[in-house]
UniProtKB/TrEMBL annotation:
Stored InterPro entries: BofA
Name of the protein in its database record: Pro-sigmaK processing inhibitor BofA
Superkingdom assignment: Bacteria
Transmembrane intervals: 32-53, 60-82
Keywords: Membrane, Transmembrane, Transmembrane helix
Length: 87
């Protein structure tokens, strides 16, 4: 089973590298990804330290930042809603 999973990962990585280098995307996508990560962390930071909701604290970890990165500011609202319903 482990060999199959490693094979799928290797094939996926090769196909991803093929797409990135064959399309000549350049480095502009790295700037956008970096900007999205910074904005996601900033959104979580504003929620944590704004003082509007003192009972809600969203930790800055890879899971919360990736959720906010993928979903944007609605992802921060989702995390805040989950935190408030779980308290």
């Amino acid at each position: 089973m482990r060999i199959i999973l490693i094979g799928v990962l290797a094939v996926s990585l090769l196909l991803l590298l093929y797409v990135v280098f064959s399309r000549k995307l350049g480095l502009a996508w790295l700037t956008r990804v970096g900007l999205h990560i910074v904005l996601a962390a900033l959104g979580i930071y504003i929620v944590n330290f704004s003082g509007l909701l003192t009972e809600a604290y969203i930790p800055l970890n890879p899971i919360t930042i990736s959720t906010a990165f993928v979903l944007g500011l609605p992802g921060v609202a989702l995390l805040l809603g989950l935190k408030l319903t779980m308290i």
